[in-house]
Amino acid sequence: MNSWKVNVIQSWKMLQLLTYMQIFIDFCNFYQWFIKNFSKIIWLMIKLTWKNHLFEWTEICQTIFEELKQQMMTVFILKHFNLIREVILKMNFLNYVNNEVLSQYDDEDILHSMIFYSKNMILAECNYEIYDKKLLIIIRCLKH
What we know:
Number of strands: 3
Largest sheet: 3 strands, antiparallel
Distance between the termini: 21 Å
Order of helices and strands: HHHHEEEHH
Shape: flat
Radius of gyration: 18 Å
Strand order of the largest sheet: 1-2-3
Oligomer: single chain
Helix content: 40-55%
């Protein structure tokens, strides 16, 4: 992650308004694939955005907020692709959208993400058999 984004994350203050929290959640959502247990961490903050739910910033929310900030600053985001190394493709798809992360291990056997790709499927593709959907995802990711 570039230093400008790290500075923005570090300077992010307590989220006292619902709108600011929604902006922060949207910002974090882009990095969800790179943060371990993201959905479990952010769950309470998302719950505060629900309609008919009292927005109250608690100490637990502040702890979650600080933890997310810290993880986003220390996460190993996208490295350069190495043609020699083995490739690992993780796929996640529903009927209308698919997500892929292409990863490789470095010299210390740490798995790093190389490419993140997300695309909505057209209506005709939603009718494909499961094995055809998987193949389509692989082809799209490798083309990207």
